Amino acid sequence: MLQLTELESLPEGFFALKNPRELHTLLPNPTLLHLEGRREPRLFISVLLHGNEDTGFFAIQQLLHKYQSQPLPRSLSVFFGNIEAATFGLRRLEGQPDYNRVWPSTELEDCEETHLMQQVTDIMASKGMFASIDVHNNTGKNPHYGCVNVLDNRSLQLARLFANIVVYFETPRGVQSMAMAQHCPAITIECGKPGVAHGVEHVLEFLDAALHLQELPDHPLPAHDINIYQTVARVTLPENHTFSFNDPAADIHLLPALDQYNFSELPAGTAFASTTHPTARLHAWDDENVEVGEHFFTRDHSSIRLKQALMPAMLTLDEIIIRQDCLCYLMKRLPLDSAP
Questions:
Q1: Would 226 be classed as within a structural domain?
Q2: What pLDDT digit, counting tens, does each position of 45-88 carry?
């Protein structure tokens, strides 16, 4: 049975761990670590909701090592999520739900994981939170950026502290940042590919800065200081068709360098894939989970192309991730005056 472990101090040997694959030797269960600091309320950080995304783990390891012999500037709670999947270097194990789709407001059915995340949310809400940060990696080529689910000034200020690119999204539901946004400013940070030293350095610097904040300003950001994009669709491959970047026998052939499109404003007519199969196409899902692919893609003979000018994010060349999650998200620029 899935159980939550709560700790008030770091287990001995934490700083000697070489990577998240070894974390289970100290923390066999999803673990919520509470550490006291000079200031309250506490900062909440979640890492390893996807077991193959290691930047958050390394950044936390280095952050806590820095404060090993001195008080934290602010109390801190850290949630180590899918430790079991991290042991195998996988996003999630076969049969597991996605740990970033099972938080309160999820559309998934009740399961051990939804109960666990409700427990974490309730514990943190009772303690009080200054802010919440969920740390993630991408599998494709993406700049570092922040994500928000609520367009309020304090959340945007926190996201801007990490990067000047911010993505506002309402789906998928059941993500950590959406659950915590009911209690405090909450963001997700996307830190590029795992295993990159620069990503760890950037996240470490950001988390340290967040710990030192006395408050989050509640005034609007200057328009020239931030670029906000809103997701309008999530793109998937149909289950009844095969796809590949390099297998000529597949029904749908995705462009081999597709992830070069990430965060580029693409004109209508940009090619994404080709196919000779009469019914093969790309699916796109709106915020109500309605399939609206015909609004975003068109078939031009054997080519599948964008129907309108849009910007993709999180395009990946990892075929497993595409099946488990999606091919990408499509976005449009959101004027800053759309925020309060």
A1: no
A2: 999 999 999 999 999 999 999 999 999 999 999 999 999 999 99
Q: How far apart are the first and last CA of the chain?
A: 44
Same domain, 11 and 119: yes
* SS3 assignment for the chain: CCCCEEECCCCCCHHHCCCHHHHHHCCCCCEEEEECECCCCEEEEEECCCCCCCHHHHHHHHHHHHCCCCCECCCEEEEECCHHHHHCCCCCCCCCCCCCCCCCCCCCCCCHHHHHHHHHHHHHHHHCEEEEEEEECCCCCCCCEEEECCCCHHHHHHHHHHCCEEEECCCCCCCHHHHHCCCCCEEEEECCCCCCHHHHHHHHHHHHHHHHCCCCCCCCCCHHHCEEEEEEEEEECCCCCCEECCCCCCCEEECCCHHHHCCCCECCCCEEEECCCCCCCCEEECCCCCECHHHHEEEECCEEEECCCEEEECCCCCHHHHHHCCCEEEEEEECHHHCC
* CA distance linking residue 207 with residue 166, whole number of Å: 17
Domain assignment of residue 330, yes or no: yes
pTM greater than the 0.90 cutoff: yes
Contact call for residues 182 and 149 (beta carbons, < 8 A): no
Give the tens place of pLDDT for each residue, 302-339.
999 999 999 999 999 999 999 999 999 999 999 866 55
**How many structural domains comprise the chain?**
2
Looking at the fold, whether 130 and 173 belong to one and the same domain comes out as yes
